[in-house]
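Internal ticket - ligand job 359, flavin-adenine dinucleotide:
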Amino acid sequence: MNQSYRYDLVIVGAGIHGASLAYYCAQAGQRVILIEESRPASGASGHAFGWINASALAEPVQHLAQRVIDDYNRLHTELPSFPLRWCGELTYGACQEKQDLSEVGLSLSPLQPLTISQDAIRALEPNLAHPPIRARYMAAAGVTSPVEAIECLIQAAKGFGASVISNCAANELLVESGQVVGVSTQSGNIHGSKTVLTAGLGTPNLLSRQGMHLPIRSSPAIIIKFDVSNNLLNGIVSSSEMEARQAGARTLIAAEDYIDDTQENGPVAIGLRALKAIRAELNGAESIELRSVAVGWRPIPDDRLPIVGPMSQYGGLYIMSAHPGLTLAPTLARLFSQELITNIATPLLNNFRPSRFQV
Ligand SMILES: Cc1cc2nc3c(=O)[nH]c(=O)nc-3n(C[C@H](O)[C@H](O)[C@H](O)COP(=O)(O)OP(=O)(O)OC[C@H]3O[C@@H](n4cnc5c(N)ncnc54)[C@H](O)[C@@H]3O)c2cc1C
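stdout (C-alpha cells):
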C-alpha cells in the first residue's frame, strides 16, 4: 500500500460492517482509522434484533451461509467477550408456510431445517401457550447483541493499533488526480491509501456529493423491548403472532414490520399489540411490561444483494453494505479485508460488486 499516507485504510461508519472491517484489517497489521459521525452502533446495527440467520440467505448469497457460522464462531474464539449464542429458531404459522417444509426427519446439515413435532416443540420452548402441531426448527440460528458486538470489535481493533474517532462525520471525499485519498471532516482532512464507505444510509449521501450514485434505500423496522422477570424463551420464535427472543434475564426483544406513523398503526400501537400477543402466547408473560419501542432504518441495496468492492469512478474508493448486515458482516468483512490487503479479488464476492450498478 502507499506508504506516503498516514493510514492504509480510512473506514467511514462504525456500524457492524465498519467495526468488523476495522477489526480484520487492524488484526492483519494495517494502519486503520475508523470514523463515526455519532457513536458506534448508532445506525441500523444498534437497533437490530440480533438474529444470525444464515439459513435464510438465498442464492447467490447462500453459498456464504456456512462461512457465516464459522466466522461467528471464530470471532467468539478470538474475542472471548464477543456475544454469541447458538440458540436455535422455531418457525410456525404463516411464517412457516413461507418456508420449504419438504424435509421431515433428521437433517445431516446444520443449515437444513427440521420439521419437528409438538412434543419436541414443547421440550424446546416449554412456555409456549399454544405450541403448534409441527414447526420448522433450525438449530444453526444464533443471536448476538449488536451493540456489545460492535464495542468488542472496536476494542479489539484498537488493541491492534486502530484509531477510532466518534462524533467525526466524513463531509466529503478527498479527490486528487482521479484518486480518492481520504475524507474531509470538521476536524480536518484524514488521508489514507484506501477509503472504505461502511456508512450505511450515509454512503449514498457521501457518493452523491461527488456525482456518484448507489441504490441503497432505507427501510424501517420496529424493535420492541419488554421487561420480564424470568426467562420465557430459550431460542428465537418466529410465528404469525410474534418474532421474539430473550435478551438476558430481564429483557425480551421483539421485531415487527413498520406500517406507518398513524395512531392506529404507528410504532407505539404496534408495540402495544406485540405486548398483547406475547402475553397471550407465552405462559408466564402475563406481567411483562413494554419498555421501549424504536424504529431502525435498514440500509438495503435495491437488488437486496451485498455491495462489496471498488467503485470504478475513482481509484482508492471502496464500498461495503449488505442486508441482513448483522448476519453477513463478519464474513463479508473478513473476505473483503483480504482483498484490500492483497489487492487480489476473491471470487466469493464477485456477485456483489458495485460495478453492477455503474453502467
Ligand atoms: C429493527 C431492525 C432489526 C434488524 N434485525 C436484524 C437481524 O436480526 N439480523 C440481521 O442480520 N440484520 C438485522 N437488521 C439489519 C441490520 O441491522 C443492518 O443490515 C446492519 O446493521 C447494517 O449495518 P451497517 O454497518 O451497514 O450500517 P449502520 O449500522 O447503519 O452503520 C453505519 C454507520 O455509519 C455512520 N455514518 C453515516 N454517515 C456517516 C458519515 N458521513 N461519516 C461518519 N459516519 C457516518 C452512522 O452513524 C452509522 O453508525 C435489522 C435492522 C433493523 C433496523
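Auto-summary: Residues 97-108 have pLDDT under 50 and may be disordered. Residues 89-139+218-300 form a domain with the D-Amino Acid Oxidase; Chain A, domain 2 fold (CATH 3.30.9.10).
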